[in-house]
Amino acid sequence: MIELDERLRAVRDDCRDAVEDMRARALPIDADPDDMEQHFNSPVYTMIRLSNTPPEYRESVAGGYRLMKAKSVLEDIVGMVELARGDMSTMFACPCPALAGVYVSLLGNPAQQEKFYTRLHGGRTWTFFAMSEPGHGSDATNMQTRLEKDGNGGYLMYGAKRYIGHGARGGIGLVFARTGRSALSIRAAMVEVPSEGWSAQRLNTVGLRGAYLSELQFDGVPVAADMLLGEHLPVTRRGIWGAVKTLNNMRIQISASAVGTAMAITEYVAEHRKNAPGVDLALARAEAGKQLIFQAAAKLDADPERGYFASASKLSAVRMAQQTAQWAITSIGPAGLIEHPLLEKWTRDVRAFEFMDGTSNIQRLHVARGYQSGDADG
Amino acid sequence: MSTVLEQCERIARDEGLAAGLAAALSGTEVTAAAPGSYAAVPASDVPEGAEVRTHSLANREEIVFLACPGERPAADYTLAEIGRLLAAVRIGTVRRLLDEAVAYLSERTVGDEPLIRKQLITGTVGDVAAELEMARAYASNPLSPEALADLHTKLDDLGWQVTQLFGASGYIADHPVRALYVSALVANTWIDRKGAA
């Protein structure tokens, strides 16, 4: 059992204060994810962006925000669950460092970090973390995108990516590509957009439209040698190693998204259909999910390379959230999804978590392997 | 009735969800029969000037939601029969997408092996196929409101299992898989499951 200390309770309460604001933004973003002007620089987006940015790279803004320090995965996750209770699509739509920031902080040198984080000042620049490819999903070892030497000390990038958040509107981010055949040749390149050879289109998704999933094509995108991350690290720690740690982190974030959305769904049904059977059960399941992801986050803080608990939490939390959505559909009554568009949106959004950062089948394989290695007892 | 059920399934499988819905609702006075304030209908069947709500995914399936004002009827024989026909339509829709999923999984390879040969995938295809047989048998007899609700909840789940077979393509609105999302939305307007939670 993870008991939140005073600092974590403060993080939770600050994010909890943002719930209603995020819910108010949810349907407009779902209807038109390109219409973001009304959301830029809102207090909640400023809070998320600054909290997501290391203190040394934060811009100074008025408002006196009490910011999450993100000293730990657990602190990040405690806040994330509450923001997801607000609306996860609104959270994803926020221009902020996001997943790319996790990796840049892990593997970027000071110059790369400064370039990345200062580009985000002003709150109008999205980031991307481009790993999945058409035909290969998140199977990084089969990645086809390649970096070819340009003869002048740099590289030209060729290939394609698919299902990349903010790919078609991000200003800066990371693209994974290989410089050779071995797994160790896979590297993350920092790319600023617009760029020669870069083209991108938004994908029209069923839900979670704030994530702005996109497909990207690279036809000779120039990448300077000093834009490859991890050059200052041993060869074994430059590419996939960081990606594995980042993905473990991301899997718990997706679990938190699922748990927060399940809570939002349950609260909505309880409010709009008094005495609906199953509310207490749905809440109890979501609370169990919350406790599971807190434990998984604490485990990841202790050992960032061990993914068993991250995968186990994603597999079970996403399934729990989907069951909660199904319960809501049966509970809200005939035509309830038409009468309650926010609930209907959440029943679509929650499906996205299945496909992000490894499907349930992929997590099953990770969990089974981890269990056989004794990770469940460690 | 069994012939009508077969027809509804076949039409949905061959021609799509909206065509199947049109067959299931044939001869029904929608605004009098629907259990909720809106009812899914084929867009082509909406009377001129009628109030409708639209949905971005349902629009692509040419289905809209017709306003049904006033007191709603209690569950009756007509609604129960529509529920069974709609189940047949949804079975046909799952078949349509399952066929497509199997074709996709047979082409896509991981490590030089078609995905359809991976045990977790094969298991899902087997489960869905078996559950479809059970669902068809379930719909073949008159059903109580509780059983009808149970049948449609199972069909929601079958639709989701097939959706997952497409991987992330299963979340793209331009993909034919959207019919499965819309199928669940259609059922939400025609099946009263409040008491079944």
UniProtKB/TrEMBL annotation, chain A:
It comes from the Bacteria. Residues 238-370 form the Acyl-CoA dehydrogenase/oxidase C-terminal domain. Residues 129-221 form the Acyl-CoA oxidase/dehydrogenase middle domain. Keywords: FAD, Flavoprotein, Oxidoreductase. InterPro entries: Acyl-CoA_Oxase/DH_mid-dom (IPR006091), Acyl-CoA_Oxase/DH_mid-dom_sf (IPR046373), AcylCo_DH-like_C (IPR036250), AcylCo_DH/oxidase_C (IPR009075), AcylCoA_DH/ox_N_sf (IPR037069), AcylCoA_DH/oxidase_NM_dom_sf (IPR009100). Its cofactor is FAD. Belongs to the acyl-CoA dehydrogenase family. It comes from Kutzneria buriramensis. This is Alkylation response protein AidB-like acyl-CoA dehydrogenase. One of its GO terms (molecular function) is acyl-CoA dehydrogenase activity. PANTHER family: ACYL-COA DEHYDROGENASE, ISOVALERYL-COA DEHYDROGENASE, MITOCHONDRIAL-RELATED.
From TrEMBL, chain B:
GO terms for molecular function: oxidoreductase activity, acting on the CH-CH group of donors. Pfam families: Acyl-CoA_dh_1 (PF00441). Keywords: Flavoprotein. This is Acyl-CoA dehydrogenase-like protein. Signal peptide: none annotated. It comes from the Bacteria. It comes from Kutzneria buriramensis. InterPro entries: AcylCo_DH-like_C (IPR036250), AcylCo_DH/oxidase_C (IPR009075). Residues 83-139 form the Acyl-CoA dehydrogenase/oxidase C-terminal domain.
